[in-house]
Design brief:
heterodimer; A: 457 residues; mainly beta; five-stranded antiparallel beta sheet; 39 strands; B: 406 residues
Chain lengths: 457, 406
């Protein structure tokens, strides 16, 4: 008997079949499924919301306890505040150009209005009911003092942030404290910026060319869980910093200096750590209670994988995810929820080598079909004529195709919610298919993005 | 080695050294001698100022750096419209809305003593149409509801900055002569404002760039400003926030951004003064500064390509105005330094510097003679028009000369 090391005929046959299969699959998906070669497949985008209206892009974002997104859309036209649910339906809308919107406990929304499009409208902070009725307002004197952020504090008073001022007012409109952030600088910790032109002092009639001035560009002042106030100053070109004030507006501490390029959000966690999201360096930085830098985590990889034109804002979510407001190069503006953790698949609690990384789309995990099937005792077969995959396990049979959200399980039509897709010559299926077609138990841990497949055998 | 070979080698080496030195010199000089002039790298003064015309001052500042520490060149033209016969005007390029021209061409066509590029424009079927509001000489040519900063000039030469979005927002549109939408708003009530994001600017316009802006000081003097890096280049210069701060520090009480980047161009005196001079972009509209009384022919305004001169109470205009606008034929006789103007059956002869003119052979005494100003022949417009059987009306309040000619 000859030892067959290389059977030429079989090789060519298999080769033809495989390439034929791939060629057909590629063509088919190319024509019928524009998502097949989406470059977004690799990016760790858990969820995204794209607003179809142009002219305005995402500004300040907040995730509500219900999971809905409260989003400010800002631009030269179609400016508005919207609330979007996880199914991407707009459930509330307020047509005004706003710089911030936060939901109050009583169900009303506190909005910082920019004053657009000009007189007779003026910059102001308003509390508005779901029906759109203004029940409280506080006016700011000029465009230069337009409110950028406003928050209702735990004592019921309102904390307002303008470009360079932080003020706390009560409901009667009286100022409880006011801080000018241009003067607020811990000279030890910050590199004060040189002035741009020469500052001419009308009174002394002198130009102070040697005078250094800190030019603030405040994003927000937010009361934290411990009563302190964290102020984010994104700076101008440089000088981004985070300032901590006590409840009376006194400077306690400053972070930033060389580390921050364009910070947009700072949060004090319950255990006292500070997390700062820096849009300019695509990092979020974690500081200890004492102010020591503990860790830096980057989301740069995600940004390079997406066709991003501009980053507008970032919001830190309680579950450790990041919300980014972006514009794509094609003009689309959107909000994406990303997680730096690569989703993981475990088999019975043990690491499961899939060969290629699974990914998330709209909160659903996709994993390579072949590797999953072969490890789970599922036989699969590609029908070149009908252009579909038949997967069989025991007495259960499922038929599906890339690009289609519907599969047939034992003759019944089942909606998978999302469609299997072809990426880099690999067919990925929504892992939910395993449960829907074959009753395989799936355990999902959202915080670690880990899927455990329970497969006793 | 023999002595002979030694000395040959020595000579050879010497020759090579001399040639090398000469060649280096030649190369260095070739670079600098492109124009036949050997340039000596000199340090430009940090600040220069010149009065281009009454009420029009051109200033260059080289003592300013952006917030990244890069040195800038800031070109400022200050226009005081309270000075008699100094006018700030909005114009579009070419003949029709949608045409484009370089700022030099526009400035030359209008006889501008200073000019700056105008607002943003978009491509619509090959035509470059203004983005936002656009009104010239009281005619509203474009209107939109965009939240983008606009600048208006009223009939009383008042300059207004704001968001003039629709006829409903309470603003008096009837009082306007010119309106231009630019953006973003840079200075409001003396304070820098950062409106770029609210006005929906995206992409590379938010990066450092050369910038153009128009502002107004508290005393009403208009500032036309182009700020750019000392080193020319695209995508370098100032961010919009830096431009807002700069305009406030230069004394603007209100200011608005104009089209920037490669469009940033300033004309002062008789040339483009900023980096755009190397390669001008064709733009759709511009703000021009004109001098001299306004001249109208048969109720249509005409623009002498050099400003009219007021001499002895009489207005002189360049001879070309007569040729093109009055349809006269003009001949020049160098030996007698005389201008022969013919139109229909009328013939006028003017001699430079002489207050005796001939009209169809008859002598007339002039109040003021034809003159050569900066190489251009200028003739008294009233005399010539009346000699051609036209009618002239002078309005001293409005600073306006109306010529009527059949």
């Amino acid at each position: 008997m000859r030892l067959v090391i290389f059977n030429r005929e079989r090789f060519y046959r298999t080769f033809k079949v495989t390439t034929g299969f791939l060629a057909v699959l590629l063509t088919w998906t190319g024509i019928f499924s524009p998502l097949a070669f989406s470059s977004e497949a690799k990016a760790r985008v858990d969820w995204e919301y794209r607003d179809g209206v142009s002219g305005a892009h995402p500004g300040q974002m907040e995730v509500l306890p219900s999971g809905n997104l409260l989003l400010v859309l800002n631009g030269f036209i179609n400016s508005r505040v919207i609330e979007v649910d996880r199914d991407k339906k707009v459930v509330w809308r307020h047509d005004v150009q706003a710089n911030s919107a936060v939901r109050l406990e009583n169900g009303n929304t506190l909005i910082s209005e920019s004053g657009a499009p000009g007189k007779p409208l003026i910059p102001r902070v308003v509390e508005v009911t779901p029906a759109g009725q203004v029940v409280w307002n506080y006016e700011l004197p000029s465009l230069a003092d337009a409110p950028r952020y406003s928050q209702e504090m735990s004592d019921g008073n309102i904390l307002i942030t303008t470009r360079n001022k932080i003020l706390k007012v009560n409901r009667a409109g009286e100022t409880l404290f006011q801080v000018n952030a241009d003067q607020l600088t811990d000279k030890k910790g910050i590199n004060a910026l040189p002035i741009l032109g020469q500052k001419y002092d009308k009174e002394t009639e002198k130009t102070a060319s040697s005078e250094l001035l800190h030019l603030t560009n405040l994003v927000s002042a937010k009361e934290q869980v411990d009563g302190s106030i964290l102020v984010v100053d994104e700076g101008i070109r440089t000088g981004g910093r985070v300032i901590e004030l006590d409840q009376w507006g006194n400077l306690i501490r400053e972070w930033g200096n060389q580390k921050l390029v364009r910070p947009k959000e700072a949060v004090r966690t319950e255990d006292g750590k500070i997390i700062i999201a820096d849009l300019g360096s695509y990092n979020y930085l974690m500081y200890s209670q004492e102010g020591d830098l503990k860790d830096i985590v980057s989301w740069r990889q995600v940004i390079t994988e997406l066709p991003v034109l501009n980053q507008w804002g970032v919001s830190l979510l309680p579950n450790g995810h990041l919300l980014l407001g972006l514009s794509y190069t094609n003009g689309q503006s959107l909000v994406v929820e990303i997680n730096d953790k690569i989703p993981q698949v475990l088999l019975n609690g043990e690491e499961f080598l899939l060969g290629v990384e699974p990914f998330m789309v709209d909160g659903r995990m996709f994993a390579p079909a072949n590797q999953l099937f072969s490890s789970l005792g599922i036989r699969s077969h590609w029908d070149n004529v009908l252009k579909q995959v038949t997967a069989v396990k025991g007495d259960k049979k499922a038929v599906f195709a890339t690009g289609s959200t519907e599969m047939t399980v034992d003759g019944r039509t089942v909606d998978m919610g999302s469609a299997p897709r072809l990426v880099n010559n690999t067919t990925y299926i929504p892992v939910r298919l395993l449960q829907q077609a074959f009753g395989i138990d799936l355990e999902w841990d959202g915080s670690t993005r880990t899927l455990n497949i329970v497969y006793p055998h | 080695m023999t002595k002979k070979i030694n000395s040959r080698i020595y000579l050879l080496l010497l020759a090579l050294i001399i040639v090398a030195m000469t060649m280096t010199d030649i190369q260095a000089d070739t670079e600098n001698e492109e124009n036949g002039v050997v340039e000596v790298k000199e340090v430009l003064p940090l600040r220069e100022e010149a009065e281009i015309a009454p009420g029009v001052k051109y200033i260059v500042r080289r003592d300013i750096a952006n917030l990244a520490g890069e040195r800038l060149h800031v070109h400022i033209t200050e226009v005081d419209q309270t000075v008699v016969d100094t006018e700030l005007k909005l114009v579009y390029a070419g003949e029709e809305l949608g045409d484009t021209q370089t700022l030099s061409s526009i400035a030359n066509n209008y006889g501008a003593v200073a000019a700056i590029n105008g607002g943003f424009y978009s491509n619509q079927n090959g035509r470059r149409m203004p983005v936002g509001n656009f009104m010239v000489d009281g005619e509203l040519l474009s209107e939109s509801d965009f939240y983008r900063a606009s600048m208006g000039i009223t009939v009383d030469d008042e300059i207004l900055f704001g968001y003039f979005n629709s006829k409903e927002n309470g603003f008096d549109w009837d009082n306007l002569v010119h309106m231009l939408t630019g953006g973003p708003m840079l200075v409001s009530e003396g304070q820098p404002v950062f409106q770029a994001i609210a006005e929906g600017f995206t992409g590379s316009v938010l990066s450092p760039n050369p910038r153009s802006a128009v502002g107004m000081k508290a005393d009403g003097v208009v500032m036309l400003v182009v700020a750019e890096r000392e080193v020319p280049g695209g995508r370098v210069g100032l961010t919009l926030e830096e431009m807002a701060i700069l305009m406030a520090q230069l004394g603007a009480y209100e200011a608005m951004g104009l089209d920037s980047g490669g469009s940033s161009t300033m004309w002062a005196g008789d040339k483009v003064v900023n980096h755009a001079a190397r390669s001008e972009r064709a733009i759709a509209n511009a703000l021009v500064v004109l001098r001299g009384p306004k001249i109208y022919l048969n109720a249509q305004r005409i623009y002498p390509d050099v400003p009219p001169q007021l001499v002895g109470g009489r207005t002189l205009v360049p001879i070309r105005v007569l040729m093109e606008k009055l349809g006269a034929r003009v001949d020049w006789k160098a030996e007698t330094r005389s201008v022969y103007i013919t139109r229909g059956n009328e013939e006028i002869v003017l001699e430079i510097g002489s207050n005796v003119a001939l009209v169809n052979g008859n002598e007339h005494i002039l109040d003021v003679s034809a003159e050569t100003v900066n190489g251009r022949t200028m003739v008294p417009v009233r005399f010539v028009t009346e000699a051609l059987n036209g009618f002239v009306n002078w309005d001293g309040d409005k600073r306006r000369i109306d010529l009527y000619l059949r």
